[in-house]
Specification:
CATH class of the largest domain: Alpha Beta
Largest sheet: 10 strands, mixed
Structural class: alpha/beta
Mean pLDDT: 86
Strand content: 15-25%
Order of helices and strands: EEEHEHEHEHEHEHEHEEHHEH
CATH superfamily of the largest domain: Bordetella uptake gene, domain 1
Helix content: 25-40%
Shape: globular
Distance between the termini: 34 Å
């Protein structure tokens, strides 16, 4: 496992059938057609919270707009446990409400907690993609970006009994009849959906004809595989690790440029496609700047603890801290380009 995001704030992705390596901040990959960017890597933001006063919270409320056991759930609970162990929160409450790539939970969070100075929303790249695809009334404009926390890569898995013993066999079946292969993963428009679309594009197939069954967690995706309702599942490695270790699932490829977790990459198997996911926290939009700053300091302090570092290791996450203006600027770029990416891949609800 690598210890940082490629190019820190940028993720390099291949442009499907176009074959060009494109600069990106997560979703931005397919929005341009250019060669590798020449810009130097941007260093991660320093911890501006170090040494500054923090007001611990009697209660920290972590709102998780996804199902139990999913990536956002894992991230939120790891963050809450680390904050509590560090004395930054006396108690932590978790609330899960999944649906439509986190947009259902986002709307609920905005409605109920916009003025709560002790609430944080978990979100990330999946939510950005879902917003671009579904155009909900409530968007990330109604919350305040605090910090990006982690990144990880997606893994393609199949049941151990699958006829697809490798990516070559999967690609051959997709090229024979794309509709015969049902993919499953996270929400429509999310990173898993995008990766499947990018694969189809790279194979010179129509991504709009892709069959994709959305779920709210890796556990649900595994259940669809077991029921025979999907042939291939895509999610973060952390969500599939237990089943891979038990050999009930067989990993075919990882979405990094090179092999990760002992799994060969798509690019190494002649499907030049690369994509990294990220997760972050957001504050209520109607609390004061001072209250937002206190939440930011709590989050940064939490990510500096041994408990949080252990969670990164245990879940095979990449620490990808980006905060303050750097994160806000990066998020703006992702939101602006996400619609173009969704259109280019012909993703649909």
């Amino acid at each position: 496992m690598t210890g940082r995001l490629p190019m820190d704030r940028r993720t390099c992705l291949h442009a499907g059938a176009a074959g060009a390596l494109l600069p990106a901040t997560g979703l931005a990959a397919l929005a341009q057609s250019a060669a590798r960017p020449q810009a130097a890597a941007i260093p991660p933001s320093p911890s501006a919270a170090a040494g500054l006063p923090v007001t611990p919270l009697p209660l920290l409320r972590l709102y998780i707009p996804g199902g139990a056991g999913g990536g956002w759930d894992q991230t939120g609970r790891a963050l809450g446990a680390a904050a509590q162990s560090a004395g930054l929160a006396q108690r932590v409450e978790y609330e899960n409400k999944g649906g439509k790539g986190g947009t259902v939970g986002l709307a609920d969070f905005v409605e109920r907690y916009s003025k709560d100075p002790a609430a944080l929303l978990i979100g990330g790249m999946v939510m950005v993609g879902a917003i671009a695809l579904t155009q909900p009334k409530v968007t990330l404009a109604q919350v305040a970006p605090i910090a990006r926390l982690t990144s990880d890569y997606m893994v393609l898995v199949v049941p151990a009994s699958s006829p697809f013993g490798n990516v070559r066999a999967l690609a051959a079946e997709m090229q024979r009849e794309l509709a015969s292969v049902v993919f499953t993963g996270g929400s429509l428009g999310g990173v898993d959906h995008m990766l499947a679309g990018m694969m189809a594009r790279q194979l010179r197939l129509n991504p709009g004809a892709l069959k994709y069954e959305p779920t709210s967690s890796g556990k649900e995706a595994i259940a669809l595989l077991a029921a025979g309702k999907a042939q291939v599942a895509i999610s973060s490695y952390s969500e599939f690790k237990a089943e891979i270790d038990k050999k009930t699932l067989m990993p075919l490829a990882v979405s990094s440029r090179r092999a990760q977790y002992g799994i060969p990459s798509l690019t190494e198997q002649n499907i030049a496609t690369e994509l990294a996911n990220w997760r972050a926290v957001f504050a209520p939009g109607q609390i004061s700047d001072a209250q937002k700053e206190n939440l930011r300091r709590i989050v940064i302090r939490t990510t500096e603890t041994a408990a949080w570092r252990q969670s990164l290791q245990d879940n095979n996450w990449i620490g990808a801290m980006l905060q303050g203006k750097d994160f806000a600027d990066s998020l703006e770029i992702e939101q602006a380009i996400a619609s173009a990416v969704t259109m280019m891949l012909k993703l649909r609800t």
